[in-house]
Amino acid sequence: MTHPNQSVLALYAGQDLGWFTRRRTERHLARCPECRGEVQAFGSARDNLAALNELPALSWNRLAIEMKANIRLGLAAGECVRGQRTVSMFQSLSDARALTACASVMALVAAGLILQRPAPVAPPAIARDSAVLRATAGGIELTQGGQTLSLLHAHSGDVAYSAGAQGSIRAGYVDSDTGNVTINNLYVQ
Amino acid sequence: MSSRLAVLFVAGVAALCAQDAPLDNAVKINLPPDSPLTLISANLGESHVSQRGSAVVLDLDVTLTLHNSSPNRVRGVTLLVAAQEVTPGGKASVSVPSLDVPPSQNFPVRIDLRLLRPAQIAGGPLVQVNLDGVLFQDYSFYGPNRLDSRRTMTAWEMQAQRDRKYFKSILALHGIEGLKQTMLESLNRQAERPRLDVQVSRGPAVTSAAVGEHSARFAFLRFPDEPVEPVEGWAEIAGNEARNPRIDVRNLSSRQVRSVEVDWIVTDRQGKQYMAGSVPASGPEFNLKAGNTSRVIQDTALRFAHLSKDGGAPVSVAGMTGFVGQVEFADGKVWIPNRESLANAQLLGILEPSPEEQRLTDLYRKKGPKALADELNKF
Q: CATH number of the domain that B25 lies in?
């Protein structure tokens, strides 16, 4: 005869088995006194556990009063042993903490500013101090002395660039919003 | 302590917010009192000023609505955009060619501009927008023409007439299917046109690039009907930089010529050809009488690289080809090569398309052949 394992018997004792397993276990228990004994033992143990979970009756109000009294006593004792010097040390510590907190927040704000608004990328190095025209991915730009004037063509697909040897650069495109051809020109003098 | 932290937090947030200030009086739009165009509105859209380190960045995305108050149809407009405090050695313009605006109608012009300048520059408008010229259907012109807009817009309008005539002839001869095929060919040419990243500067040569510099001679393409012919020309070449182009031209016509523009093609070491730019000559010092020869000269350096978002590799110049792309006579009339000449010289695949061809192919791409045929039949 194959006996159900211990966990099945324990679950049966607690009436936690599914319908099919419970029926099968009941059929086995009807002809197996050994397993019936196991189930009775599990049942007794569950009853004992329930009894152990019950807490003894306590006077919560009395306990709270005692705790408050102890706290007051501790504070009063602290006041007796703490001199003027100890107070100023505590104050200094508090100020130091405040300063550290302020410094941390300022550092956070500064880091945010740096990350949020990075310094503009420096224009490409120019070997002479004259104005330079060039086409970029987003438009055409004139750079002079670290300052830049760009004409952009964000609202376009195909762009036709051309340069003029008199010192100009041109970008022609169809504006997708207006449907008009727009020709941007930059000139260097 | 909590109140001190709160003050610090508010100050930090205020400092962050102050970096993206709205645009206020940074742009001034000036139209003359007798202008044939009137300003209806200037929508500043997402324009804003922001501070980055010690620099101020002005992002200007403005759409002007202009009104044609003249009795003529407007064909093109050029606006001069000046930011003198930022770039005293430069200026900008925004042109809208290929228009067809009847009298009493409004039309938009968009200016998308960015300025990067030091923060300590004094106040006042950062950008001034002035009218440089308006071209009408009958080729009459209004405006101060400081940027030689009259010649440029007249040439664009002539190109527009030339290309419209060509596409209309295709429509008449081969119908919608023929027009479709021609548009696809044009779109393919535009997509496959080899492009260069050209950097332009004026003044003396860069020392490093000047090493190994030599004079290179232009080869010239000729057109049967050209009123001015290129005779000979040179430029100084060093690696991917070409400097000081100078080209002698002869006036073959019986009329006085006010300006000439020689288009410039460079060939790399693999034999691939790119449109590099143009060498124009105009102004009071250039006055080419009938039968005379004059020199087109520019003190400029052009550096060539492959077009790439991350900065392409330099293109070494192995050869140069020039052809006359535009001639303006003393009476203001302009000559441009016809389409057959460009096709015969196999230039259509190298040259940038005319503004009108760009507009028509864009219309075809977005709205189809029927809409394009309707557009061509308008005028």
A: 2.60.40
